[in-house]
């Protein structure tokens, strides 16, 4: 096994950044109760420079989490409620024809809500595919094209989308190409009894604790740069490659994968695992990621990048079951 050490300056930056991220994590936890895993996975996504898809039933503070993230991390945030009649121009913006005092006419671009640092796409699967596709270029390239002209988005730029898994009327499933743009799919569950009791008391009194600013956007960008400088050992690289390639029916040695998986994770899944593992190490104050990070992040990285066939679903075999089997091969 090859062990790579981080330079001294990287270790010092790591200690400082980890302490700042611990402050941010605590500040968010004072507003969002009983969702420590969700908070951590969302912070990992932002540290890795990616986008997150939050899936959970109504009332689990998904919207409040995004608003709190914007304040705590010092990001300009905007929210778009996705509906069936939403148009791409409602997200990206549009050009309008203006006439100057002298009679000259010219087009002026009016920026849409996508021109922010943290965009909340609320109930993203309620918009038509045409509106959904308006985010594809923004999420991948950090810019948008309107009327043949490119417009750069602010940096950093992150999309945190929410999706309700219960109501299917009037929804449009996200295409695989767009799902792949999300670094993590974060499943939001119910809080435990103690957290729900705390939430009940804290949120029904005369005043709720407001979110506190901890970081700035510039500090977040520095943390993202640091994530990419963290060294990764050969064992972690091999674990990532083994996990991702074992999830593809064409290259897997697992009979379950060959029989039940309709399509497996692509190279972007391996890239996401590498970045997310580094970000998780930074969040915990460790100088480099371990195989344990890969194991912990495999479900949120892979669950939206693979699908099982109809026969597998009829037999009760889910993507989660397949991911568990893949983890066993590297555990």
Automatic annotation (TrEMBL):
Record-given protein name: AAA family ATPase
Domain AAA+ ATPase residue range list: 48-192
GO function term, MF aspect, one: ATP binding
CDD domains: AAA (cd00009)
Organism field: Magnetospirillum moscoviense
InterPro entries to which the protein is assigned, alphabetical: AAA+_ATPase (IPR003593), ATPase_AAA-3 (IPR011703), CbbQ/NirQ/NorQ/GpvN (IPR050764), ChlI/MoxR_AAA_lid (IPR041628), P-loop_NTPase (IPR027417)
Gene3D superfamilies: Magnesium chelatase subunit I, C-Terminal domain (1.10.8.80), P-loop containing nucleotide triphosphate hydrolases (3.40.50.300)
Domain of life: Bacteria
Pfam families, sorted: AAA_3, AAA_lid_2
